Amino acid sequence: MIIASLAFALSGVAVHALGEGVWDIALLARAVFGLPFAIVAFLATRSKGQWTNPRILARSVSAVIYLGALYYALQRISPGESFTLASMRPLWVAGIYLLVGRSLVRWTFWPIAAIAAVGVGLMEGSHLEVGYWIILIAVVLGVFGAGAVITIDFCRGENPQFMTLHLTITMLVIAVPLVAIRSTFSEMDRWGNPASLGLLLTAGLAGTLYQLFSVRAVQIVGAETGAAISLLAAVFAWLLGHLIWPEHSTLLGIIGLLLALTPCIWIVLFGGFSRRPSTSTAGTS
After folding, report:
1. CA-based R_g, the chain, Å
2. Along the chain (285 residues), what's the average pLDDT of each consecutive run of 10 residues?
3. What is the per-residue pLDDT for 127?
4. What is the pLDDT at residue 279?
5. Are 171 and 67 in contact (CB under 8 A)?
6. Is the alpha carbon torsion for 43, 49, 51, 54 positive or negative?
7. Which whole-number Å values give the CA distances from 36 to 51, 106, 267, in the listed order?
8. Does 7 map to a domain?
């Protein structure tokens, strides 16, 4: 979970550093540079995958929409603020499961998730912009982010390497026409700039690494607990953002950071929030 969260945060920081207006190019780079890594990882398993499985397709499309919205946010506001919007995913997942009668979390999940959500909010304080686009992005991130995690629970017969490759190819199929329609020649010229190319490469490789480890984590502990990756990623994004773009850290922000780590500490000490035995899913990948 730590590796997945750190890789997710690193890819987000790289996208933010690219500047505004190229979120679609960042999505394409994520697919292009992540594809060789995903292919090698998949071939190393010597297994096959169900390429036309509608559940896997739903998972891939949900994840692409989620990442597109996150990249859009990352190029308008700070990494910490963007991941603050994305960090509500555990509550969205648990809430959706509760509505459909499939909730498998212990009661302790709710107060601890709420504490972490407050902590993430305190980390950014009053810096988060208020506007209709923020609300819309938060809803898109919540719905499709939850969908991308929940569908993993319905794809337990597939390995993380195949699901990562499927997502990467789906992302490529969506990103190519999107960039062709939306981007100008000057924006595409970033591929020839060494600094921008390095950021695009980082986004692609770190993003693919995140996918590999996050799928594995969700398969082991379940969607509700596995979604806590977004909370830890918000912490890492906040830390990386403050290190790269120095900002004054308040006492309230530090307190928020500690509160945001509450679910991660609980998982380490007590094994998570799910009532599902982890041994029943540990061998599915």
Report:
1. 18
2. 84 88 89 92 83 90 95 86 81 82 72 80 64 82 90 81 93 92 68 84 90 80 71 81 73 78 72 54 32
3. 58
4. 38
5. yes
6. negative
7. 18, 40, 33
8. yes
Predicted TM-score (pTM) of the model is: 0.83
Cα 115 to Cα 109: distance, rounded to the nearest angstrom = 10
What sign does the CA torsion over 219, 259, 90, 87 have? negative
Q: Which domain holds residue 94?
A: 2-280
Q: How many Cβ atoms from other residues are within 10 Å of residue 120's Cβ?
A: 25
Alpha helices in 125-159 (DSSP H): 132-153
What is residue 285's three-state secondary structure? coil
Give the model's pLDDT for residue 184.
Answer: 66
Residue 285 domain flag:
no
Q: What are phi and psi of 275, to 5 degrees?
A: -85, -5
Residue 42 token pair: 């998949």
Coil, helix or strand at residue 274: strand
Domain assignment present for residue 49? The answer is yes
Q: Tokens 């997942």 label which residue? A: 93
CA distance 241 to 74: 11
- Phi, psi angles (nearest 5°) of residue 6: -65, -40
Please answer whether residues 103 and 157 qualify as being in contact, where contact means their C-beta atoms are separated by less than 8 angstroms: no
How far apart CA 179 and CA 57 sit, in angstroms, is 21
> What's the number of domains the chain is made of?
1
Q: Which two tokens stand for residue 69?
A: 């919205």
Residue 130 lies in a domain: yes
Closest CA to 168 of 10, 5, 1, 38: 38
Residue pair 97/224 in contact (Cβ under 8 Å)? The answer is yes
pLDDT at 70: 94
